[in-house]
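User: tokens in, sequence out, please.
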């Protein structure tokens, strides 16, 4: 029974006072405190709360309040009133949902930027892509023209990254300068390139490496034997880069 009353929104103190009222009838504060074994100040607080919630009423006799419990038969009506209030609150929430979504989109569309230096930062970026990606996701990348050799660490990183992408079901499209076709063949070997997801070569000049993943654009700049990666999260920027990528992709050879 007490659990049912709790579900109606009553506290344990209010339940004790309400049950005492049902037993005692119309009484003042003191008999209720004795019956419920609660302090007088607690009883007074609970009585006022029960009145507000519709579970008790009072009359004035002289200068003193005499309280009584509402008939239990009225409780379903209290529930109906609570349901009406809930329905009203639901309508109010539904009316502001669109506004709340606008706040959410505004937060999501905020631009953030990070700078990563060296191989460790370069590695963190590709680990982050793997961690955030789900089967069926895809991303694009521009490869910049580079020397005929690759550091063993970067070579291993790319080979392992491509394998993990394929196992996870994430698609990758790579655009590389036409001049890099033989260079990549010498560095990675024919078998690796044949197993690469999708790679095409373009005569378009690509001065820096660019990775496009969801709403993020990552620019990779080689500088003094190390890589500086600038990661910018901005939906509009990512869309513009992706549109350009698709334009170049359609005009290239595989």
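Assistant: Sequence out:
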């Amino acid at each position: 029974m007490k659990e049912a009353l709790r579900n109606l929104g009553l506290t344990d103190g209010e339940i004790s006072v309400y049950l005492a009222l049902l037993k005692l009838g119309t009484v003042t504060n003191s008999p209720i405190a004795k019956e419920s074994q609660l302090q007088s100040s607690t009883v007074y607080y609970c009585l006022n709360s029960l009145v507000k919630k519709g579970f008790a009423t009072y009359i004035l006799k002289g200068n003193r309040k005499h309280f009584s419990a509402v008939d239990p038969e009225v409780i379903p009506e209290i529930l109906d009133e609570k349901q009406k209030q809930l329905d009203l609150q639901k309508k109010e929430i539904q009316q502001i949902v669109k506004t709340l979504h606008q706040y959410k989109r505004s937060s999501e569309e905020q631009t953030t930027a990070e700078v990563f230096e060296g191989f460790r930062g370069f590695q963190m970026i590709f680990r982050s892509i793997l961690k955030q990606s789900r089967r069926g996701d895809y991303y694009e990348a521009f490869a910049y023209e580079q020397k005929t050799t690759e550091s063993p660490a970067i070579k291993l990183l790319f080979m392992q990254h491509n394998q993990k992408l394929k196992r996870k079901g994430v698609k990758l499209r790579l655009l590389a300068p036409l001049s890099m076709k033989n260079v990549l063949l010498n560095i990675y070997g024919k078998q690796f390139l044949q197993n690469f997801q999708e790679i095409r070569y373009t005569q378009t000049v690509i001065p820096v490496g660019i990775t496009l993943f969801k709403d993020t654009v990552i620019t990779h700049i080689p500088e003094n034997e190390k890589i500086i990666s600038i990661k910018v999260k901005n939906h509009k920027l990512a869309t513009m880069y992706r549109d350009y990528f698709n334009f170049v992709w359609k005009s290239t050879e595989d």
